[in-house]
Amino acid sequence: MLSKKSQYAFKALTYLSEKFNEGPVLISEIAAKKKIPIKFLESILLELKKADILDSKKGKGGGYFLKQRPEKVKVATVIRLINGPIAMLPCVSLYFYERCKNCNEKHCGLHDMMIEVRDATLGIVENRTLKDLLV
Amino acid sequence: MLSKKSQYAFKALTYLSEKFNEGPVLISEIAAKKKIPIKFLESILLELKKADILDSKKGKGGGYFLKQRPEKVKVATVIRLINGPIAMLPCVSLYFYERCKNCNEKHCGLHDMMIEVRDATLGIVENRTLKDLLV
DNA sequence: GCATAGCCTACCAAGTCTGTGGACTACTTA
DNA sequence: TAAGTAGTCCACAGACTTGGTAGGCTATGC
């Protein structure tokens, strides 16, 4: 399951995608429109900024805005950043790989199956962007 | 990600699948062979028994054993029982559904996408059983 | 130089995950 | 029927994660 934090991140990013090229948007505006606890949202946006997805401006007329065009930001990137691994097992994860003790990956049915699940999921989330989330 | 508990559950079930029709297997034997903390394993097996996947016998010559044939136990069932929802969002889950506030499910890009992910995943785990985990 | 608005640090309550310990109960065998 | 075996149940506990809150600091614009 995606954490609430991830869901908030997607809501905020969707909102910022709609407002793309309209200048900085206040944290408070996003929080109000998307009903997200403001201080929690603040930390999420900061994380997205550090990952180069968002940029911000301080002071009057400031706020947050997308650093890249919505169609350049992959859903998979956001999930990995805020939620963590997409795969169901560490020994099957591409970005968070950890070797599996007591399961030689060559002969493990669960392993093989989870690779299939991973690839099926990646086939979707690697090929969608923020733009695809707008309806 | 699957919890360690889930991974232990699959290891134990795989072992019991191999020993299907050979009579009860001791918790301690499973724990030793699969390197699972014995008391933790105990609670997992009990949970699987309460879900009618395993059965047990007390006293000498006792132990745990599969209640149904390995090919009758779906991987999806075990994941839902031990790990929880398979879907990435509550508003998209079949067995753990919860309505999504602030996201009318008719017009939510994230929602639609996560339905695709869910179906892709279910397409795999609903059609595999313990038997498929044996190599 | 003052108001604005993001930045940063610290903290916290609740819940989940991964276990451990110990007493109790049911069953088998002698 | 007593002894020993093996699952059942209950309580707890430490580490980590989740979902937040509070408040001061810093940069910006007018």
CATH topology of the largest domain in chain A, by name, is Arc Repressor Mutant, subunit A
Discrete helix count of chain A: 6
Radius of gyration of chain A: 17 Å
What is the CATH class name of the largest domain in chain A? Mainly Alpha
- What coarse outline of chain A follows from CA principal-axis ratios? elongated
Spatial separation of the terminal alpha carbons of chain A: 23 Å
Structurally, the number of domains of chain A stands at 2
Oligomer: homodimer
Q: What does it look like?
A:
The structure is a homodimer of 135-residue chains. Chain A is mainly alpha-helical and 135 residues long. Chain A has 2 domains: 4-66, Orthogonal Bundle (Arc Repressor Mutant, subunit A), CATH 1.10.10; 85-133, no CATH class. Helices cover 49% and strands 6% of the residues of chain A. Chain A contains 6 helices and 2 strands; from the N terminus they run αααββααα. Chain A has helices spanning 4-18, 27-34, 38-50, 75-83, 109-125, 130-133, and strands at residues 54-57, 63-66. In chain A, strands 1-2 form a two-stranded antiparallel ribbon. In chain A, a hairpin with a 5-residue loop joins β1 and β2. The first copy, chain A, is elongated and about 60 Å long. The mean pLDDT of chain A is 94. The A-B interface holds A 1-2, 7, 10-11, 14, 34-35, 75, 84-85, 87-90, 101-103, 107-110, 112-113, 116-117, 120-121, 123-125, 128, 132-135 and B 1-2, 7, 10-11, 14, 34-35, 75, 84-85, 87-90, 101-103, 107-110, 112-113, 116-117, 120-121, 123-125, 128, 132-135. The structure holds a DNA duplex (30 and 30 nucleotides).
